[in-house]
Amino acid sequence: MLTHNQLDIRWLSDVCRCETCGSSWAQGAVVELDGVELLRLSPSAHCTDPTSYTEEFVYHSILKAMDFTVKESFDE
Ligand SMILES: [Zn+2]
């Protein structure tokens, strides 16, 4: 069942320099599974409507894209 697959994560960043608000920064990623694009979360830095993806969001999206169902719980 477990085969070796290569997952490549290329982190992307975008910077926006605004004369009024200063500079802002956004991150995203392109993910490839065995050389085939699985996911593209393009960042867009902008002072009013930025698009940024946290590392956690990217990993969750990868699991979803790979059709895993993730159930999380906390040890008490
Ligand atoms: Zn601005």
Shape: flat
Q: Which structural class fits the helix and strand makeup?
A: mainly beta
**Helical amount among residues, as a percent range?**
10-25%
Bound molecules: zinc ion
Strand content: 35-45%
Number of domains: 1
Rg calculated over all Cα atoms: 16 Å
Distance between the termini: 32 Å
Uncertain segments are none
Brief characterization of the structure:
This protein is mainly β and 76 residues long. The protein has one helix and three strands. It has one helix spanning 55-65, and strands spanning 7-18, 22-33, 36-41.
Task: Please tag this protein with its features.
39% strand, binds zinc ion, 76 residues
Give a verbal description of the structure.
It is a single chain. This protein is mainly beta and 76 residues long. It has one domain (7-65). It has 1 helix and 3 strands. The chain has a 3-stranded antiparallel sheet, covered by helices on one side. β2 and β3 (36-41) form a beta hairpin. The chain is flat. The termini are far apart. The structure holds zinc ion. Residues 18, 20-21, 47 line the site of zinc ion.
Give me the secondary-structure topology:
Layout: E1 7-18, E2 22-33, E3 36-41, H1 55-65
Antiparallel strand pairs: 1-2, 2-3
Zinc ion binds at residues 18, 20-21, 47.
